[in-house]
Amino acid sequence: MQYSISKPNKVLEGKVVLPSSKSISNRVQIINALSYSFESIKNLSDCDDSKVMQKILLSNTNTFDVGHAGTSMRFLTAYLSKIVGEWTLAGSDRMKERPIGVLVDALNSLGAQISYLEKEGYPPLKIFGSNITGKEVELKGDTSSQYISALLLIAPTLESGLRIKLKGDIVSRSYIEMTLNIMEEFGVKSEFKGQEIYVAKQSYNCIPYTVEGDWSGASYWWSFMALAAEGKLYLDGLRRRSFQGDSGLVPVFEKLGVKTQFSKRGMFIEKKESDCKKLVFDFLQMPDLAQTFAVCSCLKGIPFHFKGLETLKIKETDRIYALITELGKLGYVLHEPAEGELAWDGERKEEDEKIVIETYHDHRMAMAFAPVAMLRDDVSIDDPEVVKKSYPNFWEQMQELGFTIKE
Asked: Potential cystine with 283: which of 121, 168, 169, 308 (Cβ 3.0-4.6 Å)?
């Protein structure tokens, strides 16, 4: 399936009720399961990733398939390693290409019993859940923050607690801090000093919890606004003081021509003039927004040089390759100056005759390229339903704001 999208009226006005945070939803679900809590989780994300997590945690079988849900694969690997039983954890063909050896090695060093059913270092996994007694593990700081968060979520339930020593630069520190902040809301104390995180053995409190809106999903509306002729949108559901690292997008989009004004339940975003000549930014703490800013910057004709993208090649797809390839179809010549970097110096080439943006089973590719519709109506998005992974009603909300979407 393909969607051809356009916006006859280039003014963008209205209200958007944002989806709840997938990242927070999945962390809270694991915490609830570890605390055997029957308290409700309000505003739980209805995206595919969170539904998969919920289904597995409520299942009475011992064989699970997470599909494309990377967060679920990582968090459940750690969770099941300490739940007594024999478990099989599998996923999609793409999931079989996403490495998990760093997490498995860490868990096994702590006393877990996890083995590979196919390729060494990759899902599917065979997990023999048992009591984990180890108390210290060492990881590279530039590894996926989801590995670290997976370990932290089970840390207070381990016999001796857990100390994690991180070597080198710490990538996506904001996601680690978000995990620790959420754990603290459930009564678990921790110490994060320098390169070490320590969580003593303790119990999670059973509390009702309301999940806030998703800043990652919200980022696409800033991109739409940056490309609109004029407009003002109200985004409902975001906290000004958020645990989500992606909330750092506000000052960056200010440079690209979007003014943000906070209110009690959300915020207004409004088009303004931009005099940005080049966008230079380190996405170390919010790598999931690199696609949003790369597409938006190109469409606005603003050269850029992004750093801190080391983890983008092990996401739902190799996002560096995907951005270079798909923006190339639109005539933008991007390059990779060094590992973990992406740049566009303004170079253009001839566009493809027919432009169909491939999504590579990556929800963020679909949504990052959707704002192309603010400028042109000859671009189609392939496999648009992939947005269900994190933002199920994304296309419907676009239509409510005056976009035309045709299959």
From this structure: 308
